[in-house]
Amino acid sequence: MSKVYMTDLLVEKVSLEDSPVAKIGKLLELAGIQDVVEKGDYVAIKVHLGSEGGYRIVRPIFIRKVVEKVKELGGKPFVTDTCRPPSLDYLEIANMQGINYLSMGAPVIIADGIKGEDYRIVKVDGLILKEVEVASAIADADAMIVVTHAKGHRQTGFGGAIKNVAMGCVAKKAKGKIHGVMGEPPMWLSERCERCGICIKACDHQAISFKDNILVIDKEKCVKCYRCVWSCPTKALTWSLSDVEKLYMAMADATLAVMKTFKPNKVLFLNFVMDVMFICDCAPIATIPIVPDQGILASNDIAAIDKASLDLINKAPGIPGQVGLNKRIEVLKEGDNKFLKIHNVDPYRQVYYVEKLGLGSSRYELIMI
Question: With a threshold of 0.85, does the pTM exceed it?
């Protein structure tokens, strides 16, 4: 049974020591960071750098505490994510979000290079994928701390540590490959389309255009992230749920590939189960959370920490939070599989496939500090 350590966000007194910010170091110690980071190690601190309109990513002050702990142990940290928007644009977004060298005390870099084409090919005996393009800066790191904001996701149900590694640590080509198991690009329903161009702006891959008033999707550029589907105000773009299970398998394969680039016991996970929205941080928006803030979790087991995070969210009482677009507010019940209800896909399947590949255990002991 794997150990997952947790601090809630309640305080007993007005003191720095009682702040959750001050407890990050203790959480990391209990999870074994002193065994993960050795003197001179290059340590990737994997985060999500957010979006231009979002505001609920892991707060910079928490990331800074991770940086400080790595330095204390003699490691050489760098804060990183991979291309989603073009690399230089993404660094501008990071700067707007308050994540830069000055605030972090460490370099902030894009792990797969300026154009998302800097990677190492890692061969795996996966459920679907047999090779994965892992971002070079991740593959070249000696150790990694995966810092994750727990939230919903329209395709996978849940965005936790598994998704942060599977999608967030691989190059653009691998992202396309993983999404590609979903089949075809979105379907266009012309009778619903107002030709407003919102989908074009939403696409980070410049795959959508209009030609003679007809929407054209470039299959070579489309990575099937379906961000255009979620952004369309008239639902003129649609996709099929039939291949979601394949997506979970491909994500597990990618997780295996990323973990394979590290020696055993060189990766730790921090999940922030707070600001839990129905939608992911890739979207150019943020909104009202669906449950009260639960706390911060740490573990060396990726399956256990995501299972524990999902269990906390599902056991929590719902609050009046946004569960869909068009300002749809709902109070989800305590005990509901909340992201299954919202997105109609079961987020626990991610954990199942990662566990199937031997990357961790869904059986865990939750230890409060």
Answer: yes
